[in-house]
């Protein structure tokens, strides 16, 4: 079973599309671990009446820590050599979390999307090891408290057994309910939390308690259970994918499938499916499964970091997924297996069975402390070594043609040359952007150069709050030359610096309403970060449209939105859209929203999405500070990706809707650059402008918006 579990996980992470639900291999591991560990603990209680915790933890140290530490240290070294300097500190923090067996909580707090492609933390997979180790701390203590501290098991085994079974039932049911609720809410803690995964280990523990009953099962029943279990596990791997709300109740299928396999193997290990799973090849893979699980992920991630390419023009909806070619992926999988075999025989087995460690538990525990120390030192070394001038020094200007110069001066218009408006912050209720006016010119500055919002005008995923309009107003409070509402997601928020500067220079008033990943068009969308429908988006949208409808003297509503709604909008059957079928849905959704906006203004201006680079820009620039041309991208692949949305929005209100496009300014040649001719970095990731570059576009943007209003 270990072989099946690790093969599913490796195939999934390698990008084998047929195994879109291969992540369920981790759930199989949880069931197996719960079964094996609880079996050892219960046998010890039955034999001695108690649990020797020091001996138990010493065995865990010898079994898990040597190889875990080796992989963490090797990952630290490889990350220093292969990862862009700007990303090393984040990986160092991940390494520290993994070393302290708290990786799951760190990644949950960081809202990391485990289902995403392997262009992520190279120790992300340590979350599952952290869950298991945390369970190993809590579960033996609970058993000891229930039956092992008073010798109850030796005096009255039936009473002790009932106590353990009752506690286990409460644990399983309670954890499953919490998992179901948090999964339904879209919380990242649902995937990574011990409290949401404990029931899976608990199912394995229940099988350990039920071994006497399982031994009385008929061979025919065992054979049927094995077939059913295998079908459930494999079916889960083939039918589930990243859109499956998981774990929650969906995890019941692979977990119960694994339980059937374990139960059948207990009764008839040499027959049918159980015998097939005992094939020498599968047994060998199972023997090195722990080592392979540890090695495969960092090797794949670092291979993608070194050799991966982001297809900027792809229609997958992915903004940041770097993909190495299949030969590279296969080589990475083979390398990880070779490392697993070598480390299994050189490190894992020798230290696990070392006589000098087994002879004294104190030695094993001291070894554990030393190994954790080694992992932390590796983390600190990467953090210190990761501080590089490549992320702190200004990048060079592009040498190739196509780098945008300073935005051209706007053509004369009624808006140009008007008297300046008030400075942001002079009027009550204004929400100034607290940002340096110049830059960014270094990768580190670019990564953090985003519009600042201190007035809750830009809200996060879980919020539905909409502040009063005056709280999110900047520019003139009275006598404004133009009054505009800027509405949308982070791709609306990225235009705040440009419009805030326009408000100051041209006497405009701007109202801002923005929510992360939320479209203004009245369409249900899928929230990739939480793997659930984005319910709070619709609630927030309704409030915002009502708020906008109440603004007097509004010249236009300016909408900013992400191009990837072409694949994240949900069709009536709950499936995600494609660029080919998004049209009718987006047209009707836009009609509903535009009709509400028409109560306040006759003009709706949609900002076409900006060109999409082929890689994370600060990361690329920190790797190639003196050759920024390598970070550029093909114009045809990186532009016009929101064409299907544009067509649908125009059809929704042909007389009211106008579009503003600055692609010609950002990308004047066939190859787009990510740094201006003056050395200013244009992007802070793969699809957002830096605040500094946005502000530099204020004349172009405000002129084109003004022209759209007057058209």
TrEMBL record:
Residues 445-455 have a biased composition (Basic and acidic residues). It comes from the Bacteria. InterPro entries: Acyl_transf_3_dom, Acyltransferase_3, SGNH. Residues 419-429 have a biased composition (Acidic residues). Pfam families: Acyl_transf_3, SGNH. GO terms for biological process: lipopolysaccharide biosynthetic process. GO terms for molecular function: acyltransferase activity, transferring groups other than amino-acyl groups; hydrolase activity. Residues 1-342 form the Acyltransferase domain. GO terms for cellular component: membrane. Residues 457-694 form the SGNH domain. Residues 393-462 are annotated as: Disordered. The chain crosses the membrane at residues 28-46, 67-86, 136-157, 164-183, 189-209, 221-240, 246-264, 284-304, 324-347, 367-386. Keywords: Acyltransferase, Hydrolase, Membrane, Transferase, Transmembrane, Transmembrane helix. This is Peptidoglycan/LPS O-acetylase OafA/YrhL, contains acyltransferase and SGNH-hydrolase domains. It comes from Pedococcus cremeus.
